Amino acid sequence: MVRRDNALDCELGVVRLFGAADLGTQGMLSGWSGPEDGHTWNDGVEATYLLAVRPPVGRTVLLVSGEPYVTRARPVQELTVFGNGYRIQMWRMTARVETTLVIPLEPEWWFQRGQRAIMRLSFYLPNSSRPKDIADGADGRELGFCFRSLCLRAVPD
Amino acid sequence: MVAAAPLQGDLYQRADGAFDGWCFAPDRPDERLVVEVLVNDTVAVSMVAAMFRRDLLLRGCGDGYHGFLVRLPPNFPPAASECVITARERRSRRVFGRLLRPGPPPGTARLARLADEAAALVAALERLPARRGTAAPLRTALGALAEELGASRRVLWLPPVAAPRLTLALPVEDTATALWQIRALAPAAAEIGLEIVAVDRSGAAAALPALVRNLLYRRAPGDPAAVLEIAAEAGRGAWLALADAAEPSAAALLALANALPAAGRGVFINAALLPPAAGGDDAATLRLPAPLGFGLACDRGFWRDAGPLEGGAARAGAALALRAHLLGAPLWRVLEPVPRGIVRP
Predicted ipTM? Predict the structure, then answer.
């Protein structure tokens, strides 16, 4: 069951920062490691995030910026995003650079729950790997993408 | 009447076109405030100010997580126009930073480009023996034109450096002196990959960013060590240097830049700074006897490892020297007068 109280109540247009200082663990349901300084990694092949907005919801786009975990031993990261079960988009990332994922969210994809519209996002990262398994340090978490910020924006009609 | 809650903050433009700043409410030190950045009074971006800035922590602004970094959407505003960028706290709508983003330079830039093209043509003419006689007066005329062009420019343009090698922290007391200092340093800027962070400690040089383009300007009180901290936060150079507040010179900076290793780490210290003057008066030791151009310099990695510095240049220099010894980083002293040799102590 979704823990409603943990959903991130999004304000359109406001950039929120992952990490201990701003988002903390807000919105994170499963598959996340602990928030760090200015970022949060996924931990495992699937990280689930819960967004909530006040209806009515128009066309929106979610901008998620971060950095894929790409090394010589793990040269490709694939990331597929599902929103309330809809497969939205897939990215194939081959460079460890700041990357912005542009995730369009159609109004009919949101679930209406009382006074809120809910979007359960799944970030599927099948190439997540433990750095210690590929001789890239002692980190035992299963990393795929380092999340830095998110921002939900309205798309003008 | 209810007094407005205190709010502190500032907004700066970075060399790469982005804007950074900070916003902090002293009576609510744990709150992350939402900042709106407006372009000509239209909200362009809003974000939570929750990025860590070491200078804020050192300045006692809560836990230091009150910074923000904003990149304007690519088509907002139209690139060809001058615009006013304003930062305000969203709930109270209090403005804490405002600056003018200049549009592209007026006609002078185009004239300068034409002059460069003409100079190239004249150079080509000079290579033809039959045309040498024609080329000479043309070159004289072009020289006069370039001189006029330079004189007509009211704004000093520092060359934009994509990946600066050296970030120079320049403590600023007033606009006129700062302009003179930056003019002295400008010729070397492109050659050594220099970016200058002017730190206005008294607020008396607020006009500086309008007079010098591609200058990183910060307004913050503090001792020279704090100036270096602010420059490290604002700049991107692999090496950090603290300018001698008295007489920076391009030649001295070139000497320093030549001595910097391409990779690796180290600390450079002006020999005149060590040992500190008897009585510990930093102000006395700050005025270096010769135009060395910088007081101390170190690589960014070492600066990060060495931890916070405080006090005047002499005290910071002594602390850096000690930490270089403790961390096993190479330490050089730069001897006077120019050209100065770099020797290991």
Answer: 0.75
